[in-house]
Specification:
The protein is an alpha+beta fold. Helix content is about 35%, strand content about 35%. It has a single domain (about 5-90), classed as 2-Layer Sandwich (Alpha-Beta Plaits). α1 (about 20-35) runs antiparallel to α3 (about 75-85). It is globular.
């Protein structure tokens, strides 16, 4: 096993107005289960904004940055993007090494 630190990926997802409920349902039923099967993913959690219900947060706990980077070559990557794309109007992503 490498000495690479575990990683938390924190994504803020801005969702098109009027599609928030459908997005949340899709993520519960397909998006999060898809991510959970990716090698190197320890957990996947999602929350919806209280003050801004059009903003969601997605937290993915990865074994390492290398595992996260490898996801982009996994056949599930384009599948996940296709699920997400119709709802998205932008957002941001950050990565945090965990102690």
């Amino acid at each position: 096993m490498s000495n690479e630190k575990a990683l938390i990926e924190r994504s803020e997802l801005l969702i098109k107005e009027g599609t928030e409920t459908d997005f949340a349902k899709m993520m519960r039923e397909r998006g999060m289960p898809t991510l959970a099967t990716v090698p190197g993913v320890r957990s996947v959690k999602m929350g919806r904004g209280v003050e801004n219900p059009g903003k969601f947060i997605l937290l993915v706990h990865w074994d390492s940055m290398a595992a996260h980077a490898a996801f982009k070559t996994n056949p599930l990557y384009p599948e996940f993007l296709q699920l997400f794309r119709p709802f998205s109007k932008g957002g941001s992503m950050e990565h945090f090494e965990m102690e």
